[in-house]
Write a structure and sequence with these properties.
CATH class of chain C: Mainly Alpha
Number of domains of chain C: 1
Largest interface: B-C, 48 and 54 residues
Shape of chain C: globular
Strand order of the largest sheet of chain A: 6-7-8-3-9-10
CATH topology of chain C: ABC transporter involved in vitamin B12 uptake, BtuC
Chains: A alpha/beta (about 500), B mainly alpha (about 350), C mainly alpha (about 300)
CATH class of the largest domain in chain A: Alpha Beta
Oligomer: heterotrimer
Strand content of chain A: 25-35%
Shape of chain A: globular
Largest sheet of chain C: 2 strands, antiparallel
Radius of gyration of chain A: 25 Å
Number of strands of chain A: 22
Order of helices and strands of chain C: HHHHEHEHHHHHHHH
CATH topology of the largest domain in chain A: Rossmann fold
Number of domains of chain A: 3
Structural class of chain A: alpha/beta
Distance between the termini of chain C: 46 Å
Radius of gyration of chain C: 19 Å
Strand content of chain C: under 5%
């Protein structure tokens, strides 16, 4: 254990990045970016997915070596070669995915990363020190709890505590609120702001949420396509300024036109559905809803409130504990023949892992829905690989999938093109019911617009659509009716016309 | 048209050949340490495995059960299960063959053999199928379950052979009743190799066609590649897993049948000679492809076949063949890491 | 046990307890070894080959030098060498640890039989034991309470390992690596290196377990020495929930179950001999079926171990 007098006396690190460039093959991920992270400030790194935010901080932390440019810490130029080196300089990072050891206690997790940990651990002494450390922090956790029993917000706090305990005084937070409820997010970011105001630490927060930047950051740097798109003090910038910096002058295809639907029969119904999660806890409790033809019902909510389990129950990836799903009045057993007869299609989140086979070709992946039907079969049970390839080539063309060819493995495609492949597969046939989850995650704005257009076209064509999304803007753009999901319950419902963002936001945060 | 498949096949051939050459080099060093000229040893290896009709027949005889036990790992593996129960399924198949066969003396040989083959494969199929069911309906890890079931199968056989079905006329060794002499099968015409070889090759070829050319095989590939995608496609996963486990177990059970009706005539400890474990590795070496299993099994069988000659010529222990096989397995498994690392085999942009 | 008759069923009980201690020793070492391997996140099914290799090399060393303890050390080192091979190969990407284990099982036993040919006939000095039963007039009791030295070492080791996994730096690191690759990488640990070391340490213990077979009980070297104790290690560890102290209890249980058949034979019950011998496998399978669920992974399993998923 090292004592930390430095915490009280010296100011936190002041870090400057000058003309940093990082290339991956032909791709320039970061193009001559310069940023000054001033000591004791809360600095936001804003930008869309793929803008270069992660690359920048990974260069800072020594995971990547920049091709050009300098890093200086407290005025001294440093060549950061690995994460350990970055730690020595007082830089620490809190990852988007938790890096805690689930089977260990809070105390064990805190002790793990300590420099110069002795080979035999004196738990008595360590626990005393940790207890004192907890007392000095604005938020606390029980040292003896097992991490696997912590809630998402508590894990996030533990990640931050861990970095502080290790002596990091320059904290990089990678999208820290993506798994938190708005309340938890406000609490944690508020505490971070408090610590920077007290000049105890410097914070860099990667985010794409403007609200968080405006509420908590002192300074902001906006990246776009790997280039610096703007920076300044948050108090000097308007909301419009930030959006302009983030999006630039790109032309975005127009939102799809919503037509008036003619047929209005209930096609999809969920009645008293209860679904458990991996830990055996209830993730969806007593959920009921009805979706009509030609209607998009949007389910809004913060990540981790049972949306994934709901989608899995609908897609056949998870058995419900009780309750029923009906399609066109008939009980739906999630079999292949029902999916075909009812025209049920799915666009799950993370399509590569949820609905593709990595080792199979693009054409084979495109055939997953239809491979057991003519024309891709003959003699009933034999597969016609030529027809599979022709079908694949046809869809690749129609949906403009960028691939080396129908025989290329799907894992060689970019994320956007995997998404497009699944979209092609699911929308090519007869779509009567469509279940969509976070369809635009991680895509650039044009791809987003295209995918939303196709969903809207399907709706206009009379399809019944259930859209589950963590992006409230997406729901507001597409849905005819909006339902808010919180801790497994449908807690609020509103029609498109009466939707009020603030009211929806309040319901996303808690029962009212 | 067939670019992807062709390139992948070529890649596998090149990588496996390189692993084989490295293995031989390592083995050469090993025998050199014991004072033998590696080149002489290689020559004897070739002589014992592939040079003469006699050695080829010996090799093919050795490879026959390996083809069938390899299927016990390969077919479930295509559905995403790691089954290592070939040894047990072979034993169960052999015992079932004997239990049925002793009552069939009155039947014409073809009918008796057919029924024994069915008994062996059904028993083996149910044995591994049970492991598949435990995994699908109860979440029991199939690797551990089938490992344990190997020992249980052997214990059941030892129990039966030591009492309930023991042939007390045999004084030299503990063995079961023998099946009627009339039901023992002879050799393949033109070769001094028992019919197990033909059965093994035919089974592998048929399963190759099923896995490669039918919608069932395509569905299994989806399931093995990503179970979540298979769920989303609404495939009948439980049924597919059970069928794959049954097929695999039936393969190993059939190996047990052939050992009884073509080699021993009765069940005894001599069924437990590691065919099941070697089959696991052959399946991995063949990358779970039934057609490739034929070739790999013959190669591995050749090493076993040449063991005797190496022993006689160089006074090397009979375990020499096992050392070489072990080296080959280790090397080929390690070479799996090389797939996809060489640009030359990757599909060119269209 | 010539006069088992005068003790009757007590004789069976005493024989089972004595057998439990004797037979459990190799189980104890391989299960502790496999626990270390699996705590790091890998499965080594090659422990069977390592066990046989340990038995051979330990015996050979004892024959040549006359020092059984040196044999134990050499057996451990031979085990470590084979385990190192497993660890290094599994460090490569796209390599399946189960398959590598089975290939090592075949390679290790083959190599042991190859190198051990000259040692089948000569006899080696045995490892010492403690006569805790000298007070008794019954030879059965005296025989049952001959506690071998390796058993005592193994028991101490079980408690030391259990303590070390919680209270020593290497224990925390090993558990971190075995539970979450992501966490270990973020903390800057070299995951492959730690796993390889866990495997090597496990190999050392399994090699020592093998030397028990050839240097104490049954105390000879031949090709039928092991009856699959190495392969069983994986099942034992599941039964013991990856806890070294439970490994001790479970080894005793398995040892006792294995000793049941021979013990019953002494009182004239010979039927079902082989089924009693398979009792550990039935027990483990039963426990697995009981404690598994399609909903969650096995309790206590390290997160990165393939067989727990």
């Amino acid at each position: 254990m090292t004592e930390k007098p430095a915490m009280a006396t010296l100011p936190p690190p002041d870090v400057t990045v000058t003309d940093m460039t990082k290339r991956f093959g032909a791709l320039v991920a970061l193009d001559a970016v310069s940023v000054h992270f001033e000591s004791g400030t809360f600095h936001a790194l804003l930008g869309e997915n793929g803008a270069g935010k992660s690359t920048l901080v990974k260069c800072l932390m020594g995971y990547y070596q920049a091709d050009e440019g300098d890093i200086s810490v407290n005025g001294v130029t440093q060549h950061v070669t690995n994460p350990r080196h970055a730690h020595h300089l007082g830089l620490g990072m809190v990852y988007q995915h938790f890096t805690l050891v689930p089977s260990m206690t809070v105390a064990e997790n805190l002790v793990l990363g300590e420099e110069g940990l002795s080979s035999v651990i004196n738990w008595k002494e360590h626990l005393e020190i940790l207890e004192a450390f907890m007392q000095s922090m604005p938020f606390r956790l029980d040292l003896n709890r097992s991490v696997s029993n912590l809630a998402a917000g508590e894990k996030q706090k533990l990640e931050i505590l861990k970095q502080l305990h290790l002596g990091s005084r320059f904290l990089i937070l990678d999208e820290p609120t993506s798994v938190l409820t708005p309340d938890e997010a406000d609490q944690i970011l508020g505490l971070m702001r408090q610590l920077t105001d007290e000049n105890r630490i410097s914070v860099v927060m990667i985010t794409h949420k403007l609200r968080e930047v405006e509420a908590y950051a002192n300074e902001v740097t906006v990246l776009r396509h790997g280039r610096l798109a703007g920076q300044g003090y948050v108090k000097d910038l308007t909301h419009a300024d930030l959006i302009r910096m983030m999006i630039g002058n790109e032309k975005i295809s127009k939102p799809a036109v919503r037509t008036k639907a003619s047929r209005r029969e209930i096609a999809l119904e969920i009645r008293n559905l209860v679904v458990g999660n991996d830990k055996g806890l209830t993730a969806v409790s007593d959920a009921s809803l009805q979706v009509k033809e030609g209607e998009i019902v949007g389910i809004a909510g913060v990540s981790g409130n049972g949306q994934t389990e709901l989608v899995e129950a609908l897609s056949g990836q998870r058995d419900e504990e009780s309750g029923d799903i009906f399609v066109r009045g008939e009980k739906y057993g999630k079999t292949r023949s029902e999916m075909r007869d009812f025209g049920i299609n799915m666009l799950p989140e993370d399509p590569l892992n949820n609905s593709c086979v990595r080792e199979m070709s693009v054409a084979e992946n495109l055939a997953i829905r239809i491979f057991d039907q003519p024309p891709t079969t003959y003699a009933g049970c034999l597969i016609n690989r030529g027809a599979v390839r022709r079908h694949g080539r046809d869809l690749i063309e129609r949906f403009r999938i960028k691939t080396q060819g129908p025989d290329a493995r799907i894992e060689t495609l970019s994320g956007g093109n995997v998404q497009r492949t699944v979209l092609a597969r699911e929308l090519a046939g007869d779509v009567e019911v469509l279940i969509v989850q976070n369809p635009c995650f991680g895509l650039d704005l044009n791809a987003v617009a295209e995918i939303r257009n196709r969903i809207m076209e399907a709706r206009n064509g009379g399809a019944t659509i259930l859209l589950i999304s963590e992006d409230l803007d997406e729901i507001l753009e597409l849905a005819d009716r909006i339902i808010v999901m919180f801790e497994g319950h449908f807690v609020f419902e509103t029609s498109r016309d009466k939707a009020d963002v603030h009211e929806i936001g309040r319901h996303m945060a808690s029962h009212i | 048209m067939f670019g992807s498949t062709f390139n992948n096949g070529l890649e596998a051939v090149v990588i496996n050949a390189a692993a084989l050459i490295l293995t031989l080099a390592g083995f050469g060093v090993f025998v050199a340490l014991f004072g033998h000229n590696p080149l002489d040893v290689f020559y004897i290896l070739y002589l014992g495995a592939f040079a003469t009709q006699l050695s080829i027949e010996n090799t093919l005889t050795q490879s026959a059960p390996l083809m069938l036990t390899a299927l016990c790992t390969a077919i479930p593996a295509r559905a995403g299960l790691l089954v290592i129960g070939g040894e047990g399924a072979l034993v169960v198949g052999g015992v079932a063959t004997v239990l049925v066969g002793v009552h069939l003396g009155h039947l014409p040989p073809w009918a008796g053999v057919l029924i024994m083959g069915l008994a062996g494969s059904i028993a083996g199929g149910l044995w591994i199928g049970a492991a598949g069911a435990l995994r699908q309906y109860r979440g029991v890890n199939e690797t551990i379950a089938t490992l344990l079931m190997n020992y249980i199968a052997i214990a059941i056989m030892s129990h039966l052979v030591s009492g309930p079905i023991r042939d007390f006329d045999q004084v030299l060794k503990t063995s079961s009743w023998s099946i009627p002499e009339s039901l023992m099968v002879s050799t393949v015409p033109g070769l001094d190799v028992h019919w197990g070889l033909a059965v093994g090759v035919a089974t592998c070829v048929i399963l190759y066609v099923i896995m490669r050319q039918t919608t069932f095989g395509f569905g299994v590939d989806i399931l093995g590649g990503n179970p979540r995608a298979a769920q989303m496609a609404g495939l009948p996963i439980n049924r597919m897993v059970l069928v794959c486990c049954f097929i695999g177990g039936a393969g190993a059970g059939l190996a047990g049948t052939m050992e009884i009706i073509a080699v021993h005539g009765f069940a005894s400890e001599s069924l437990v000679v590691g065919f099941g474990y070697a089959g696991i590795l052959i399946a991995f070496l063949a990358r779970q492809n039934p057609a490739a299993i034929i070739i790999v099994a013959i190669l591995v069988g050749g090493i076993s076949a040449s063991g005797g000659l190496m022993q006689r010529r160089f006074d090397l222990p009979d375990a020499t063949a096992a050392v070489l096989q072990g080296m080959l397995f280790v090397m080929v498994l390690a070479s799996n890491t090389a797939y996809g690392r060489f640009k030359i085999f990757q599909l060119k942009a269209n | 046990m010539t006069d088992g008759g005068d003790l009757g069923w007590w004789g069976v009980l005493i024989a089972v307890m004595g057998g439990a201690i004797r037979v459990s020793t190799p189980y104890l070492f391989v299960s502790l070894g496999e626990t270390l391997t699996e705590k790091g996140g890998r499965v080594n099914l090659g422990l069977e080959g390592i066990l046989v290799m340990g038995a051979m090399s330990g015996y050979g060393t004892a024959v040549v030098t006359g020092e059984p303890w040196l044999g134990v050390i050499v057996a451990g080192c031979a085990g470590s060498a084979l385990a190192l091979l497993h660890g290094l190969i599994c460090n490569l990407t796209r390599v399946n640890d189960i398959a590598v284990g089975i290939s090592l099982f075949i390679f290790g036993t083959g190599l042991a039989f190859f190198l051990g040919k000259p040692f089948i006939n000569p006899s080696a000095p045995r490892l010492p034991h403690l006569e805790l039963g000298a007070w008794s007039s019954y030879p059965q009791v005296r025989s049952a309470l001959e506690i071998n030295a390796l058993f005592i070492i193994g028991v101490v080791l079980a408690f030391v390992l259990a303590w070390g996994l919680k209270n020593m730096k290497w224990g925390l690191i090993l558990r971190t690596v075995g539970d979450s690759t992501e966490a270990a990488t973020a903390l800057g640990y070299n995951v492959n290196w730690v796993r390889t070391m866990g495997t090597v340490a496990g190999g050392f213990l399994s090699g020592v377990g093998g030397s028990f077979l050839s240097l104490y009980y049954p105390g000879t070297w031949n090709e039928g020495l092991s009856s699959g104790q190495g392969l069983m290690a994986v099942a034992l560890v599941i039964f013991a929930r990856w806890n070294p102290i439970y490994c001790f209890y479970v080894s005793l249980l398995f040892g006792g179950a294995t000793a049941l058949g021979p013990a019953l034979q002494t009182v004239g019950i010979t039927s079902n001999y082989y089924l009693y011998g398979a009792a550990p496998y039935f027990l483990t399978l039963g426990l697995l079926i009981y404690s598994s669920s399609t909903k969650h992974s096995l309790a206590g399993a390290p997160g990165e171990v393939s067989i727990s998923r």
